[in-house]
Give the backbone structure.
Amino acid sequence: METSSEKPKNLPQIILAISIVIVLALIVVFLVLPALASSSPRVNTICDSDFYNCDDFSTQAEAKAVYNACFSVSGDIHGLDNNDDGDVCESLPSN
Ligand SMILES: [Ca+2]
Ligand SMILES: [Ca+2]
């Protein structure tokens, strides 16, 4: 009789363990992954073709961020530093 009564005792513990795993998985999917996605906004910066011009930015800092994001991949592909002195879009305000 003892052996047959042990199995039902373990069942709630198994269900509880599975429930904890499901809750943890939901936490990862709904909280951790969106946080990771929003922490890397530069992932959509286009670096494989001349897509941006200085007119697309309102400050040199914005242009410089794109210039820096692409420089290691494709150099000054957008032509933001035409005189190659390291300063981009000198015609824009610096901040
Ligand atoms: Ca351009
Ligand atoms: Ca320049």
